[in-house]
């Protein structure tokens, strides 16, 4: 039997805890506490090292946060509420294994964290508030099913976690307090959704399917519901799908983004989900929804720089 105790603080600094037995949260308040009020978006096409930030609860234009250690195209991101990680991406025409981090409440440039187990780009990350997991991606002309993980509060190299059910890049990811979920993908164009229990290393399990086949989706979540927005089949899509993360099954239509888009960055504060940038041609558009209320997205504001293939995370 494995036992893990995650001690965290919520957005106002009150201590919370989750006891995890064999990868399943038991007892106490098991809802995630890493959601914060600030959304951070980094990387993007053109080897962008730009980091922007927004206050998720307050619509408006993004502001400059600082710079990443490298300018990655199509990195992945996750956070534990205080620290945000940006991992991998394509840099100087090669897949990068670099992981860097920022302290989300403090603007400034990122700092080296460690390395992925394999350099890759066009993949997605999520976290349970303690452990960050990164799944899928491209390694030049081949596709990856690699899932690796880090303990977000402790700098160092990633460790192998297991394998996704498919070798696929351009997936979206989200998580709740125990489960990480990936959806979509461009290898053969898929609607596959699979998941892992974040505190239990091992291979992913089939979850269900998106409403329709697409890739380049981007995911975010609250304590129970995961959303996957945008993506492309023949054209950039407006679709938002949703799932209940603890209940395996097919996704359901949620509503539409304000415009069709692909390869966005996304994040959430536990109430509101936000998508930023994207498009076959770069856009600066940011849009948002209330995660527990199905319906169409609303305009939020603009990024400081129009770009796509960026990554987002949030914290306080």
What does this structure look like?
By secondary structure, the chain is mainly β. It has a single domain, classed as Neuraminidase. Helices cover 0% and strands 48% of the residues. It has no helices and 31 strands. The chain has strands spanning 3-9, 15-21, 24-26, 38-42, 50-55, 63-67, 76-79, 83-87, 90-91, 94-95, 98-103, 111-115, 124-127, 131-135, 138-139, 142-143, 146-151, 159-163, 172-175, 179-183, 192-197, 205-209, 218-221, 225-229, 237-244, 252-261, 265-268, 272-276, 285-290, 298-302, 311-315. A four-stranded antiparallel β-sheet has the order 6-5-4-31, with no helix packed on it. Strands 7-8-11-12 form a four-stranded antiparallel β-sheet, with no helix packed on it. A hairpin with an 8-residue loop joins strand 28 and strand 29 (285-290).
